[in-house]
Amino acid sequence: MLENDLVLQRFLDRHVVALDADRLAQLNALLELGDNDLWDLLSGRRECGDPRLEPVVRMLREA
C-alpha cells in the first residue's frame, strides 16, 4: 500500500541509524501485519493494543 510505504520511508529516513535491536524487532512485528491493518494503526484508526509495540507505532505516526 502506497500510504504505508510513504510513512515507512519517512520513518527510516529519520530513525534508521538510531534503531536498536528492540525497536527493530518491534518494527518487524508490525511489518508482519497486513497492509490494511498496518495502515489502520499508522493512521490512528485503530489503537495498537500491544504495549511493547506502542513506542514504534508512535514513532511511525510522527514520521
Tag the structure with descriptive keywords.
63 residues; mainly alpha; 4 helices
Question: How would you summarize this macromolecular structure in one to three sentences?
Answer:
The chain has 4 helices and no strands. It has 63 residues and is an all-alpha fold.
The number of helical elements comes to 4
Radius of gyration: 11 Å
The helix/strand class is mainly alpha
- How much helical structure, as a percent, in the residues? 55-70%
Gross morphology is: globular
Largest sheet: none
Strand percentage lies at under 5%
- Report the uncertain regions: none
Describe the structure.
By secondary structure, the protein is an all-alpha fold. It has one domain (2-62). 68% of the residues lie in helices and 0% in strands. It has 4 helices and no strands. It has helices spanning 2-15, 21-31, 35-43, 54-62. The chain is globular and about 25 Å long. The model has no long low-confidence stretch (mean pLDDT 94).
What's the structural blueprint in terms of helices and strands?
Blueprint: H1 2-15, H2 21-31, H3 35-43, H4 54-62
Helix pairs in contact: 1-4
